[in-house]
Write a structure and sequence with these properties.
It is built from six helices and no strands. By secondary structure, the chain is an all-alpha fold. It has one domain. α1 runs antiparallel to α2 and α3 packs antiparallel against α4.
């Protein structure tokens, strides 16, 4: 799963790097700063994560494709607004939304792959999964509001 020489492993590493650097980028927005190099790493790995997600074999439109498309739209908005800096409303919302989508997928993957979580919500339609995702959404809405107020 974490072998970077396979598509799954490469995609997983990109996802982990994007999530880690994205969380730092959101923290930076809350502090009123932008680290150019770190933000570029985030944007590049997040876009690469979404693109490699479409390289897996599939037979029809899946929820992961919709999440990937939404993420690419948020990233495109953030990249387009990047020149305006951390004070741009579009930049802030694009960064926060795209990191949220990475975290959303990470939680979904955790419920699929971590036995204790999978036992709580094997089909991801059970209350523990909905509660976890709901709390994650509330946390990111709060982060987005705080970052917008900070600007």
């Amino acid at each position: 799963m974490f072998d970077p020489t396979t598509l799954v492993g490469f995609h997983t590493w990109l996802s982990l790097i994007a999530l880690a650097t994205g969380l730092v980028a959101v923290a930076d927005l809350l502090a009123g700063r932008v680290r150019g190099g770190l933000t570029l790493v985030y944007l590049a790995t997040a876009v690469a994560t979404d693109v490699t997600g479409y390289m897996f074999a599939f037979t029809g439109l899946l929820p992961s494709h919709v999440v990937g498309a939404l993420s690419l739209l948020a990233l495109a908005a953030a990249i387009a607004a990047r020149g305006a800096g951390a004070a741009s409303r579009t930049y802030i919302l694009g960064i926060v939304a795209s990191v949220y989508l990475l975290a959303f997928v990470a939680v979904a993957q955790a419920f699929l792959k971590v036995p204790a979580l999978n036992a709580l919500a094997p089909t991801q339609s059970e209350p523990p999964f909905a509660i976890a995702q709901g709390l994650l959404l509330l946390a990111f809405v709060a982060l987005g509001v705080a970052a917008l107020r900070r600007r």
